[in-house]
Amino acid sequence: MSDGKRPPSFYVLTAVFALFVLFLYGPTITIGILSFQGPDGGLTFPMRGVSLHWFDQLFQQQAVGDIWGSFRRSFVLGMMVMVTTVVLSVMGGLAFRRRFVGSTVLFYIIIASLVIPSILVSLGVGLLFSQILGWEVHWATSGYGAQLTWTLPFGLLIMFAVFNRFDPSYEEAARDQGANPWQVFRHIVLPLIAPMLIGVALFGFTLSYDEFARTLMTAGSRNTLPLEIYGMTTNVTTPVIYALGTLTTIFSFLVIGTFLVIAVVAQRRRARLASDAGKGMV
């Protein structure tokens, strides 16, 4: 507006957005605050003192449950799912750059797992491993397979979008210079799509790290961290569970921050390579 004043709708939308952010992060902030209570603290307000007592309890032998064991399992499983999701998503994205017989049907089969109830997928994978294949239901096998049904469709959809906007002239320029298919992919395609691959990796790890429903029937006798936290809600009556939630939230933000830094570095390298390729084409 000419007088520099903002319209009333601006303040209404700002208030709605602020309420949305409060609704989104309010529970996490509340848990973080309650985790810093004193030794006599409970699970609700008002707070009873301020200390790091409950964080210390997480590292004690008498802490309830296998917290650190479940964390290690979730981390290892997340890394396995992340690597597999990235590799298969890139292969699928490359394959779907050209239409082939049955490509449409295959596409809908891939994304169908997103609309199937997660608990049914978990139950089906668990039965497949235990009854049909005769394998023991274990977090590193059946849990791994169940979580891939959740992460792979997201990874593939991202790569489909990436390759739909990919400029093939860079590949043509490399082939004109005598590069073979592997060299084209290694030196041209891979550096250009690297920032998106980081996004796929982040999706794969975070979706696996906090997945509950698809792991419920496939983790076997050893819980992942989400299952361990769920089990703790039935027998833990102290803020130690809040302390665990605070630490896992901090870890999640550290993971996201690390991936964002890597993405920025990869984006700058991508821009530099694109600039060099453009100069070479000229």
TrEMBL record:
UniProt membrane topology term: Multi-pass membrane protein
Major location (coarse): membrane
GO cellular component, one term: plasma membrane
Gene3D superfamilies xref list: MetI-like
Keyword terms of this UniProt record: Cell membrane, Membrane, Transmembrane, Transmembrane helix, Transport
A Pfam family per the record: BPD_transp_1
Compartment list: Cell membrane
ABC transmembrane type-1 domain: residues covered: 71-263
TM segment ranges: 12-36, 75-96, 105-132, 144-163, 184-207, 240-266
Biological process terms in GO annotation: transmembrane transport
Family of this protein: Belongs to the binding-protein-dependent transport system permease family. CysTW subfamily.
Protein name: ABC transporter permease
Superkingdom of the source species: Bacteria
